[in-house]
Amino acid sequence: MGEYDANQRFAAEATIEPEHIARARQHALEIGAAPVSSPVGAQCAVIAAASRALNIVEIGTGAGVSGLWLLHGSPRATLTTIDNEPEHLGVARRAFGDAKIPAARARFITGRASDVLPRMNEASYDIVLVDADPEGVIEYVEHGLRLVRAGGTVLVPRVLGGGAVADPVRRDPVTSAYRSLIQETQSSPAVIGALSIVGEGLLQLTTIATD
Predict the structure, then answer these.
(1) pLDDT tens profile 117-133
(2) Distances in whole angstroms, Cα of residue 148 to Cα of each of 137, 151, 158
(3) Taking the CB of the first residue and of the last residue of the chain, which one, N or C, has fewer CB atoms within 10 A?
(4) Within 13 Å of residue 118, how many CA atoms lie on the same side as its CB?
(5) Rounded Cα–Cα distance for residues 65 and 42 (Å)
(6) Of the options 3.40.50.720, 3.40.50.150, 3.10.450.50, 3.40.50.970, the CATH number for the domain spanning 3-207
(7) pLDDT tens digit string along 57-67?
(8) Sheet harboring 148-157: ordered strands across?
(9) Element (H, E) at 127
(10) Considering only CA atoms, which of 43, 59, 58 is closest in space to residue 11?
(11) Which of 30, 52, 62 lies closest to 41 in space, CA to CA?
């Protein structure tokens, strides 16, 4: 096992996942809604806690794992989560109920993100997490940057594409989109970007406050 693989394994084993999130993870695997890894979820929780997030948007609910991690980090936040799979939303609702998340703190929207996001108020959210269909990642990140307040953060898990992004031979549309997203945001004067390589990768983009 190489050093990178050993570090990845250690990070995964060292991350302690709360019981209610572990149960949601099991349900996600049962219905084929691949959840974020526990190290990535924990990073999202830390960012939510550090930013004292009160209003969060999640693009791609899955079975609720990433949303529960975000609320674990910021217990006072309200989460608006969007997914076009009613089954996934149903499982997520049950996971939130199991976690005793008050109904007023979780808003579930069934629909395509490309239809829902344009109707949401800009500069109104502290965090936007983008974990929907990878073909639309650039569009969703653009919406996310519009929706977050100055100093708000857009989070993009799975951005390393299982190692594909680092492989210069891979030039399929999804891999190219992730690669372009990373490269362009790293050089953008509008955001501060950081790429975590733990788990499946997490791109963190915080908008620069002008005042």
Answers:
(1) 999 999 999 999 999 98
(2) 16, 8, 20
(3) C
(4) 4
(5) 11
(6) 3.40.50.150
(7) 999 999 999 99
(8) 106-110, 78-83, 55-59, 125-130, 148-157, 202-207, 191-196
(9) strand 125-130
(10) 43
(11) 62
Q: Which one-letter DSSP state was computed for residue 211?
A: -
Structural tokens at position 122:
């800009």
Residue listed under structure tokens 């799979």? 85
Identify the band that residue 163 occupies on the pLDDT scale cut at 50, 70 and 90: confident
C-alpha to C-alpha distance for 184 and 147, rounded to whole angstroms: 19
What distance in Å separates the CA atoms of residue 81 and residue 88, rounded to the nearest whole number?
11
Contact between 107 and 78 (Cβ < 8 Å)? yes
80 CA to centre of own chain? 12
Structure tokens at 189: 């004067």
Residue-range domain boundaries for the chain: 3-207
Contacts of residues 116-125 at CB distance under 8 Å and 24 or more positions apart, as own/partner, are: 116/82, 117/59, 117/82, 117/143, 117/147, 118/143, 120/57, 120/80, 120/147, 121/147, 122/146, 122/147, 123/147, 123/148, 123/149, 123/150, 123/152, 124/55, 124/149, 125/55, 125/56, 125/57, 125/149, 125/152
